[in-house]
Amino acid sequence: MSKPTENRLWGGRFTGASDPLMDLYNASLPYDQKMYDADLTGTKVYTEGLQKLGLITSDELTAIHKGIEEIRNEWQTNTFEEKAGDEDIHTANERRLGEIIGKHIAGKVHTGRSRNDQVATDMRIFVRENLEKLLEFLSGFIGVLTKRARQEIDVLMPGYTHLQRAQPIRWSHWLSCYATYFTEDYKRLKQILVRVNQSPLGAGALAGHPYGIDREFLAKGLGFDSVIGNSLTAVSDRDFVIETLFWSTLFMNHISRFSEDLIIYSTAEFGFIKLSDAYSTGSSLMPQKKNPDSLELLRGKSGRVFGSLSGFLMSTKSIPSTYNKDMQEDKEPLFDALTTVEHSILIATGVISTLTINKQRMEGALTMDMLATDLADYLVRKGVPFRETHHISGDCVRTAEELKLSGIDKLSTAQFKEIDSRFEADVKEVFDFEVSVERRDAIGGTAKSAVLAQLEALEAQL
Ligand code: ARG
């Protein structure tokens, strides 16, 4: 047998006991208590709105606010006692308020309000606070990337396509690539925040407020930028959750690619970077192992965040307007994604600020064949069409291979001339990696000036 129904706010119509498993199944308090603060603040401002309407007296308001602060303190100090019938954070807080200030006054706080506009309000406040925190951590992370990029601007390494050596780049260019991704994430998050920060409060269960509450006043009091203009939308809209989950998924997608590169660069075969001990672990069997677990987790956790997005999209698909209990399924994926993203940003920041690079290995991985394009460009500068020079450069690569030379740079000027008479002695100047990266000085390129300009532009956006 389950517990009596008297604690339930909606208990009036329900006399029978419910299935205890149903109580568990229905309850969201185990996870939505995370929003206790938003819920209490929401009630505080809502009751101010009621008082303005003369629905509660100023003495009652004072008592309510005092009670709310007492409850807040209980949550903060871990002394809030949950009781049977506390279905969610909203019912728990209201039940407790009644115990502290008496049911007569506490019974007025929900006038004209429904848990439908209440939960939507709490969620938006909660999401807003979390996104603001993420913005701060993200900007710290980007700052570490750009700082490192400035410090190590002189280090060259291979750039890859298809994970095959392609053209020389600066290590800083790689750092700046991800700093660019994360800066776009930062800007995208700010845009999402604008849509998150709208107030559903005062929409009631679905049809609006019967006492003409000042919704602008409520919105302002809760730090919202605007009021959601339709009461049905106000209670049913979870796009802000979906957008947050999408943002999180995309961010984790970027982080997983960033991590994968670093995992590859940290292998003995590459040896470009070494993770600090703080972000690696050993093997329980093989004493020599140092594993990049931090990066593997960053890569792996991207999957669970993507799962949260797709799961919740499935939950909301085809539900009728307006509030339906399916929507309670917004919380666990959202909370999990926010925590995962927050920790991931902090771990990635730690990894990138403590790893060490091996300049010799990075530059040692550059090979002369990576300058085959530069060789083609050499002839372009002498007026030969690129399609032709591409072919000629290919001939040089093949000839060097056939002659078993260690690289195309080892062909003599005579051998170059034999392949194409337009080659001259200055062809040797092509075979310099630094010259190659410096040539690419257009916006976004590998030249030092171009990379520094990127870093400056990124820093200016934060
Ligand atoms: N715990 C519920 C949720 O998160 C609160 C809203 C309940 N509303 C309702 N009509 N039963 O969705």
UniProtKB/TrEMBL annotation:
Catalyzed reactions: 2-(N(omega)-L-arginino)succinate = fumarate + L-arginine
Domain Fumarate lyase N-terminal: 12-307
Any one GO biological process: L-arginine biosynthetic process via ornithine
EC number: 4.3.2.1
One term under GO cellular component: cytosol
One of the record's GO molecular function terms: argininosuccinate lyase activity
Pfam families named among the record's database cross-references: ASL_C2, Lyase_1
Domain Argininosuccinate lyase C-terminal stretches: 370-438
Keywords from the named record: Lyase
Source organism superkingdom: Eukaryota
Pathways per UniProt: Amino-acid biosynthesis; L-arginine biosynthesis; L-arginine from L-ornithine and carbamoyl phosphate: step 3/3
PANTHER family: ARGININOSUCCINATE LYASE (PTHR43814)
NCBIfam families: argH
Sequence similarity: Belongs to the lyase 1 family. Argininosuccinate lyase subfamily.
Protein name per its UniProtKB record: Argininosuccinate lyase
Species of provenance: Candida tenuis (strain ATCC 10573 / BCRC 21748 / CBS 615 / JCM 9827 / NBRC 10315 / NRRL Y-1498 / VKM Y-70)
